Amino acid sequence: MSSMLSSVDARTRLVGQNRLELLLFHLGGSQHFAINVFKVQEVMRLPPLTKIPDRHPVVRGVTHLRGQTVPVVDLRQAIHMGALKTADSEATIIVTEYNMTVQAFLVGGVDRIVNMNWSEVLPPPGGAGRQHYLTAITRIDGRIVEIIDVEKVLAEIVPYKVQLPPDIYDNELLERIHGKDILIVDDSKVAIDQMRQVLGPMGLNIIEAHNGLEAYQLLMHWKEQGRDIENNLMMIITDAEMPEMDGYMLTTEIRRDPELKNSCVVLHTSLSGNFNKAMVEKVGCDGFLSKFAPETMAKEVQRLMKKRLGMV
Asked: How many angstroms separate the CA atoms of 277 and 143, rounded?
C-alpha cells in the first residue's frame, strides 16, 4: 500500500503544472512513438501467447498476467503499418490500463521515459495514413515523436455501443437545461463522438474544443463578448491528456479566474481508479467520469446539473 501511495504522490506532482511523462518506443523501424506513462502498468518481454478463435486480426493472442487474461495487440498492425516483424524472442509488450480494461501492446522495443511540458506537444498535422491514429506529436532530441491515439485503436478492436435505458434521462431536468451550453474538451474524435451520443438527447447545445488551450481561449473570448457564462454554461467536461494544455491545467486556470471559478468542471479520463481522486482534489474538479461508461456518464452529468440548479 505504501508503494502505491508513493506512486500516486509522485505522479500527481505533475498535475496542474501542464507536464507529462512519455514512454518512448519503436515499432520495428526508426520512427519513435509514445504513450503517456500514466497509462502504463509495466513493460516486459513478450510472454507465451494463447491463440483465440475469431480474434480481431490485430490481436496476436492472450496471455495471463497477475491473475488476469490480457489481450496482446500488435500496435504496428493496428495503426495500418503492417504486422510487426520482430522475432517473438526480441519483442516487448507495454501493459496498459485504459477505460477500466487492461491490455498489452506489442512493440519492437522501448527506449526511455521523458518528462516534458504539454506546451511542447502539438496536435498532429492533417493528412491521411497513420495520422488518423495520432493524438499529438512532439520533438525530442531533434526527432519527431508520434503519440498514439490508443482510444481510437481500442474502439476499432471492440466498438463502443451506447445503449441507454429509455428512463435514464430526467424530463424535469431536461426542461430546465434545454438549449443551455455544455463544453466538451477532448483531442480524440472517438471520445467526442461517444460524448455526443450520451449528451445529445439532453437537448444541450454541445460545443467542442480539441485541447485545453483551445477551450481556455474560447472561454476568454466569451468573457470579452460579455456572454453570461455562469447562467448559460452548464458544465465543462474535459479530457486529462491533451496537446498544448492538459485538462488539469485548464481546470487550474478556470479556478483562478474570478468570472469562471464557479463553473462546473468534470474530468473525463481513461485513467482508472488509483489516480483519479488525488488528481480531482488537487486541481479542484467537481468530479470525474471514466471513459467510456455511457450510463454512468448520463447519470453523473444529470446529478451534477441538478446539484447546480438546486434540484437536490
From this structure: 36
Distance CA(84)–CA(105), nearest Å, equals 11
Integer CA distances (angstroms), 205 to 22, 39, 87, 154, in order: 35, 32, 51, 28
Number of C-alpha atoms within 13 angstroms, CB side, residue 114?
19
Q: 33 — alpha (psi -120 to 50), left (phi > 0) or beta?
A: beta
Neighbouring C-alpha atoms within 13 Å toward the C-beta of 237: 28
The whole-angstrom separation of Cα 150 and Cα 169 is: 30
Query: Helix 189-199 crosses helix 294-308 at what angle (to 10 degrees)?
Result: 60
What are 229-247's pLDDT values in tens digits?
999 999 999 998 888 898 9
Sequence-distant (6+) residues with CB within 8 A of 119 are: 18, 244, 245
Measured distance CA(132)–CA(302) in Å, rounded: 33
Whole-model pTM: value is 0.81
Question: What DSSP string runs through the chain?
Answer: -HHHHHHHHHHHTTTTTTEEEEEEEESSSS-EEEEEGGGEEEEEEPPP-B--TT--TTEEEEEEETTEEEEEEEHHHHTTS----S-GGG-EEEEEEETTEEEEEEESEEEEEEEEEGGG-BPPPS-SGGGGGEEEEEEETTEEEEEE-HHHHHHHHS-------TT-S-HHHHHHHTT-EEEEE-S-HHHHHHHHHHHGGGT-EEEEESSHHHHHHHHHHHHHHT--HHHHEEEEEEES--SSS-HHHHHHHHHH-TTTTTS-EEEEES--GGGHHHHHHHHT-SEEEETT-HHHHHHHHHHHHHHHTT--
Q: What is the pLDDT of residues 104-152, one digit of tens each?
A: 999 999 999 999 888 898 888 766 445 578 888 999 999 999 999 888 8
The tens digit of pLDDT for each residue in 285-298 reads 998 888 888 899 99
